[in-house]
Amino acid sequence: MKTAQDYLDAANATVPTMDAKEAISKHAEGKGVFVDVRDSGDIAKSGTIKGALRIPRGMMEFRADPAMTDFYNPALKKDGEIYLICGAGGQAALTGKTMQDMGYSNVTNIGGFPGWKDAGGPTEEG
Predict the structure, then answer these.
(1) If DSSP codes are grouped into helix, strand and coil, which group holds residue 98?
(2) C-alpha to C-alpha distance for 23 and 19, rounded to whole angstroms
(3) Rounded distance, CA 111 to CA 103, Å?
(4) Which of 7, 82, 87, 90 ranks highest by number of CB atoms within 10 Å?
């Protein structure tokens, strides 16, 4: 039987991470798609990355699968640069692993939104 920690360990072993300052540079260069995988209630309380897609972790399989025509988000490209953020990094890691399993080749966990905000990253209201 697997535990939550087992899933996190597996995700952290395969999904690359990036610190907030480097991610902010990528954002400033217009590189990639930034995705906040938290629930809308959490985003409403704290805000999110300016221009980030808001796709809750529980919807990612539907939003990331082109065959799911009613749900697919065309901004998500299998070979595109995708930067995931959540509250502390765990949900982003798990989402990244799911996306890798779906064939996404360039997914990065940029950690938690508080780190982004503390590093001076651009934000917008939730």
Answers:
(1) helix
(2) 6
(3) 21
(4) 82
Mean pLDDT of 35-50: 96
Supply 63's token pair.
């939003």
85-112 burial, b for 16+ CB within 10 Å, e for fewer? Answer: bbbebbbbbbbbbbbeeeebeebbbbbb
Q: What are phi and psi of 122, to 5 degrees?
A: -65, 140
Domain annotation for the chain: domains and CATH numbers: 24-121 (3.40.250.10)
- 54-99 pLDDT, tens digit per residue, is 999 999 999 999 999 899 999 999 999 999 999 999 999 999 999 9
Instruction: Give residues with Cβ within 8 angstroms of 63, minimum separation 6.
Output: 55, 71, 72, 73, 76
Whose CA is closest to 14, among 84, 78, 110, 107? 107
Pick from 99, 76, 78, 84: nearest CA to 27: 84
How distant is the alpha carbon of residue 68 from its chain centre?
20
